[in-house]
Amino acid sequence: xxxxxxxxxxxxxxxxxxxxxxxxxxxxxxxxxxxxxxxxxxxxxxxxxxxxxxxxxxxxxxxxxxxxxxxxxxxxxxxxxxxxxxxxxxxxxxxx
Length: 96
Fold this sequence. Notes:
Helix 1 (4-28) runs antiparallel to helix 2 (33-51) and helix 2 runs antiparallel to helix 4. By secondary structure, this protein is mostly helical. It has 4 helices and no strands. The protein is flat and about 45 Å long. It has helices spanning 4-28, 33-51, 62-67, 71-95.
């Protein structure tokens, strides 16, 4: 099983590729630069954060140590941020 650095590097590579692909999809559907930035940032961010999830179950993992006792609050914050990004992107799409 990979360590933290391997997971992070894989997440960065996948996040970058997916962000570019998502940006082109938004552009293809007539989205503006603001929508492209929001969607690409959201997709890339989700993949980078998601790549670190396999490390959370181990007591000595860096994500778990960083979250500390605020782990649940961290998860709620990330999910809330993603929800806000989705709402902004949906609103921008509806205005187009």
